[in-house]
Amino acid sequence: MTSEKPTMIEFKDVHKYYGDYHALRGITAKIRAGEFFSLLGPSGCGKTTLLRTIAGFEGISSGVVMIDGKDMEGVPANVRPTNMVFQSYAIFPHLTVAQNVGFGLRKDPRSKAEKAQAVAEALDMVGLNGYGDRAAHALSGGQRQRVALARALILKPKVLLLDEPLSALDKKMREQMQLELIKLQRQVGITFILVTHDQEEALVMSDRIAVMFEGEVAQLDDPETLYRRPNSRKVADFIGTMNFLPAKILSESGEKVEVEAEGFGKITLNAEQVSGANSGAASIGFRPETLTILFEGQTAADRESMATVEEVVYYGDMTYYDIKLDGTTETMRLSMRNVFGRPVLDIGTRTRVAWSSGALVLFR
Length: 364
Fold this sequence. Notes:
CATH 2.40.50.140, 21% helix, alpha+beta
């Protein structure tokens, strides 16, 4: 059993006001040393403001921001053990790649040869070995992003802050850079903090994720827990796709909760499947991949219901079906991986659908 990593950053009841606007509302959280941590939420939720309080670009109205055990009150941005990669990359177009990467070493006491060696090592770290003499304006989007990373890492910060650094890239390059950032973070071993509004990006890249709404952290957990056991309907609705069916709580005893849900009938759930947050009327939530279409000759391992196919969206490797379970008024999303020999159903098809009570979450 491995011990938990020490804390690198700690927020203690952090508030931030812009006039009457309450941007951060009592943020209390810890970010561990050496983890890839993401701040995830919709636009205007406060994630970039929180990132900038770590960097020292924004002051706080009250509370405490600690980095590596030290209170950052009054500590200017240029002496904090952090560096940031901005959304725009902020590459100087009139400088070469090497000059951009070495820009932060201008006042470093090392010799010219030592600085050149540091630049070469930083470029090699991000896969740009041999690009030092290239003009910065001649780089592709992915290459500019790597230059920005090398420039930030050459100063050996304890924390690297990433403010939506992949948003300007096309889908293929974005996915490639996600994997490269994961490998880079493991290689350098320092704390990475990513700000993103892209749920898939956060799930792919992070050790832990803080989901934020309206200046507050709604849930802080590892990606699997966030996805499979969201603590509120709001978090569930934001992370990926979640189906919801109205439900009625019949009884609660010890570690068991009995409910009746539209289309599913009576179900017994474990206490761990019940959301801890009060989100209004009771409902059952489940992900599209937890429903399975049963083809001829197949039987359900747990439970099954009848449904009608209302829409079909073919993605090549996957097919997404909008279905309506018998006895329901809501349309549900179901996903099936396309394997050789498996037919794609037509709209209007009546089909059996398998499901497991263990994949359900009760929100109330």
